[in-house]
């Protein structure tokens, strides 16, 4: 006799309670599967769309060394996207379907990639702040309850910390340069600081799905906890760099043992998520064109795989 739904649910709950991992072959509640598909897909799409703002500067890198570094970094992001699409496929959805959902606007990607990159300093700032925020979000996901997602995150986090140091090193080099270069860094940090804080999502009291995700062990920390961690980590780095973070309310609070900081513009985050950020239309148009231009590659690869399988049968 097959186990009852109640027995399956009890075994799932026990696995979560023991902080053990759920694997693709295991029974899981439909809500858990759907939440994971949504989250992993959004994460995969972010890696792929996230190639665009920096890819914009590959052909205009200031030296061969900087070009090689940036090329490698953007390629890493493509790799992250592929690990994550593969992790998502273990939940019974195909990569082709996920890409369709992105192109139809039915799945999202991180709001941060809807901001433009206006100078080469942005390559450094993205490495330092955007990859830095991504690390704060992603390190706890290495312990997420779904096995394939957690294992993908372990590999990704190693590369993300390299990306962050790469960005910081670029900014440090510019800060040791001319007044003009220092001004470029400050201007870039001024533009990216608040959008980086928004990467952690809305405040906890306005984040309706968070509680269930925490109960399932999909999420390990709340949005506000992670945002605080990021601010505390970044302030001393900004001081070492010699840049000013554009927040007049930012100061150490000895009583809390954390930095206090100002409120991000949540109306702006909502607008960007709804598709009205500075670059949403451009990012999606570019992704759509790349998808259409790559159709012949997918067709050729499918035909080749079919022929190879046929020959193997003979
Ligand atoms: Fe990445
Ligand atoms: Fe990265």
Short structural description:
The chain is mainly α and 314 residues long.
Description of the structure:
The structure is a single chain. The protein is mainly α. It has 13 helices and two strands, in the order ααααααααααββααα. The protein has helices at 5-17, 30-49, 51-55, 64-89, 95-103, 121-138, 147-175, 179-198, 210-215, 223-241, 266-276, 280-293, 295-313; strands spanning 251-253, 258-260. Strands 1-2 form a two-stranded antiparallel sheet. The longest helix is centred in the middle third of the chain and has 29 residues, at 147-175. The chain is globular, with a radius of gyration of 21 Å. The two termini are 42 Å apart. The model has no long low-confidence stretch (mean pLDDT 95). The structure holds fe (ii) ion (FE2) (2 copies). One fe (ii) ion binds next to helix 7.
